[in-house]
Automatic annotation (TrEMBL):
InterPro entries: CTDL_fold, EGF, EGF-like_Ca-bd_dom, EGF-like_CS, EGF-type_Asp/Asn_hydroxyl_site, EGF_Ca-bd_CS, NOTCH1_EGF-like
Entry protein name: EGF-like domain-containing protein
GO molecular function: calcium ion binding; Notch binding
UniProt keyword list: Disulfide bond, EGF-like domain, Repeat
Disulfide feature: C14-C23, C30-C40, C51-C60, C67-C77, C88-C97
Keyword Disulfide bond: yes
Swiss-Prot/TrEMBL GO biological process terms: Notch signaling pathway
Signal peptide positions on this chain: none
Keyword Disulfide bond tagged: yes
EGF-like domain: residues covered: 1-24, 26-61, 63-98, 100-135
Coiled coil: none
SUPFAM superfamilies per the UniProt record, alphabetical: C-type lectin-like, EGF/Laminin
Length: 268
């Protein structure tokens, strides 16, 4: 600093970055915590920030654009902090959307299935299966499907899941007694179950009269027992197709979906 003489005294005018009577104390430029996302190192009238991963700039307050290098080969990139997320376009998977999805490796009933990049080609056995990857079994004038590894705890939720399936969805299953043996071989035997039960679209109308929810027709009952008169819904036990009366809102079961024939035998 610069010294100014007085009478039996002096005054120091410190250069930038110094303080104290004799300008011998370095001002801590890190005291104000200028490094927003990093560690501060004090200098003389200066400071240096060492940024944590993902940040840059003098004060480490600028997020590094991790999408700048275009890491998502077949998808859209969303920047994070020292990270990024890829939303893959159809047919691709992986952290960087650079892995082709082999659609033919998924559970399907295709008579012929050929994986393509990035798509696939599937042909169903005529009059036997239809829909995307031939997942709907054709039985008479109706098709049935059990969505893979999907369970729910209420009839209302099961109805919504069926309605949200591919190609316009369907409705909760209303299996006719005559269709049960074919459902066993074409649907149940080719499905993966979590619970061992399937929700049906059957509800108690009154007493021992049960009707199908979509058509309102009287259901051909196949109950193991009907002692529980308080509950008004039923599920089908996969092992023997017996109907079990359960609560409409608190029973975990897989789902049997149903819809009319669409005629779609080639996908996608």
């Amino acid at each position: 600093g610069a010294c100014t003489d007085g009478v039996n005294s002096y005054t120091c005018t410190c250069t930038a970055g110094w303080q104290g009577t004799n300008c011998d104390s370095n001002i801590n430029d890190c005291a104000a915590n200028p490094c927003v996302n990093g560690a501060c190192t004090d200098g003389v009238n200066s400071y240096t920030c060492t940024c944590t991963a993902g940040w840059q700039g003098t004060n480490c307050d600028s997020n590094i654009d991790d999408c700048a290098a275009n890491p998502c080969v077949n998808g859209a990139c969303t920047d994070g902090v020292n990270s990024y997320t890829c939303t893959c376009t159809a047919g691709w998977q992986g952290t960087n959307c650079d892995q082709d999805i082999n659609e033919c490796s998924a559970t399907n009933n295709c008579a012929v299935c050929q994986n393509l990049v990035p798509s696939y080609f599937c042909v169903c056995e005529i009059s036997s299966y239809e829909g995307i990857l031939c997942t709907w079994a054709v039985i008479g004038t109706t098709t049935y499907r059990v969505p893979a590894t999907t369970t729910t705890t209420s009839r209302i939720a099961a109805i919504a899941i069926c309605a949200g399936l591919d190609e316009g969805g369907g409705f909760l299953g209303e299996p006719l007694a005559a269709n049960l043996p074919t459902i066993l071989t074409k649907v149940v035997a080719r499905s993966t179950f979590v619970s061992g039960f399937m929700w049906l679209n059957v509800v108690r109308q009154s007493g021992s009269t049960w009707v199908y929810g979509a058509t309102g027709t009287v259901a051909t009952t196949n109950f193991e027992f009907e002692a529980n008169v308080l509950d008004n819904c039923a599920v089908m036990r996969v092992s023997d197709f017996k109907w079990i009366i359960v609560s409409c809102t608190s029973f975990t079961a897989d789902i049997l979906c149903q819809r009319a024939i669409t005629g779609k035998v080639v996908s996608p």
